[in-house]
Predict the structure.
Amino acid sequence: MCGVFGYLGQSGQAAREVLAGLQRLEYRGYDSAGLCVVDADHHTRVIRAVGKVNNLRVKTDSMDFSSFSTGIGHTRWATHGGITEANCHPHTSQSGRFVVIHNGIIENYADLKAELIAKWYTFQSETDTEVTVQLFEDMFDGDYQSTMTRLVQRMHGAYGLVFIDRDNSWVLFGTKKWSPMVLGFGTDARYISSDYRSLIGLIDDYIILEDGDIFQITSDNYQILSEGHLADRTRQIVDESEKIAELGDFPNFMLKEVFEQPRVLEDVFRGRIDFSSYSLHSDTLAHIATLGIKRITVVASGTSYHSGLLGKYYLEELAGIPVDVVVSTEFKYKKKFVTPDELYIFVSQSGETIDTLDSLKIVKEQGGHVFGIVNVPGSAISRAAGQGLFTRAGTEVGVASTKAFVTQVACFLFLALYLGQKNGLDYRKYREIIDGISKLPEAISTLLLQNEAIKQVAEKYAHSHNFFYLGRAHELVIAMEWSLKLKELAYIHSEAYSSGELKHGSIALIDAEFPSLMINWGGILSPKNASSAEEIRARGGKVVWIIAKWDTNKHIYADTIEFDSLISELNPFLEVVILQLWAYHIANSLGRDVDKPRNLAKSVTVE
Ligand code: F6R
């Protein structure tokens, strides 16, 4: 959450580079954006704008930045203080000499602020961040790193801080704890960013900073202090195959990423499943299979938590291993019983989610086996886990997770097959699933051809204020995932429910204005779902049925979206695509920004 970006390089380039960097970091928060540039004559310019980076761009369009070689910029996801210009970063110290940008939360900011106010400091904002720059100025002893060392001793919480000094345009300095930060080295410039991918194309190599690092960079030197000593961090070479995601012909990233799913489902299994010999390949899983795992706990948040719930279904059904799935925010503070025969799986698209990361660290400290299912290589969770499966979905720009979700589920399916073949999974079932996986990309491509038909049904319901998403067994998880998507994309209230549970209370909500989506591929629970649909209909409710083409009960539903169902284990991959398009079209027809829904950010680095 929040993106920080710093540039130190060519005269006249700072504002342009910072704005471009902010555009690439905008997924981290888009409540407001701001920048500060400094030149060799000690001029600074701080410009801030509420809203997206484009508002800042418009504000800076006619300004002359030709003398500025150094700059910092910030995209904000508001924590402390409303979405106002006064609360936008950067924040400036009392004298105007130091300027800061911050990603994180300073938990003891109120105490520090009171202390500074007692010393006659005045504050311009309601933010926790402003305290850091005021306190830095108050403590400044002429040396950035020694002052920073003392500053971090005073702050509790999470931070990625980058400072600029009006009196020295040749230097940027700062520190980080829990919030991600990289230093990037280009031919003519140096960069600091919350995300390595924002620097692709600009740099040759980079350093991922560790918690507690205090850095100082100039155009020809850099220094990192860790626990008072000079740290020798590895400079990693940029992977040239990584590209900045581009929209192409799509109107937004969400739709593009939905349509990328056939391809990412090929990528996630490539080299892992040999479809001709029905063999599975993974050195990591070969090691996991030797550990004698008897229980698994999955820890994740949001959509990644839902993929864990589908993982539970696969691991229990196919590998016969009992699984608990816990949301990271709860897991972190609950009592843990870490044993040597248990595997802890941490799932995260971004690899940054703070509660998932902290939970992982706690289990690791207690000697547990940890395993990551992560999309972003080099991210904090992938590094801390040390072993796991990358989901290979590529950069996911849309804030609502789509293609990352299906690849997470694919990783769980692969893991369940791998452990299942060791634990006596029926070979016919094993082959049937592998055959099904080989056809999955094609099946999803075919389903995507129904986009227009799904749009037409979805738009009929776009003005409903409430929805039930109903299903049974693993289809209930799909219901949960897409209830979440409807809320975050369309800002419409919805609830996921086991269709069988409805009559135990919640059916009281049903009336003609409260539609239900029933997700059902036609298995043994199909007649039960049909009964629940009848009960809703009898009370004047409408049921939209996401249904296998061959189902004969279509007359009882208000609307149907039909699909060619696969075997039970693989239908979630199809159902989720239908519901992605459903939520997308409802949100789009209501004029929502599907790539950047309100109040959200793509990576959650604060508690
Ligand atoms: C919803 C969504 C979020 C994330 C959650 C965890 O569409 O994307 O619910 O799944 O914030 O994020 P990661 O997977 O990055 O740990």
Remarks:
- The pocket of fructose -6-phosphate is lined by residues 301-304, 348-350, 353, 356, 400-401, 488, 603-604 (CB under 6 Å).
- The longest helix spans residues 427-448.
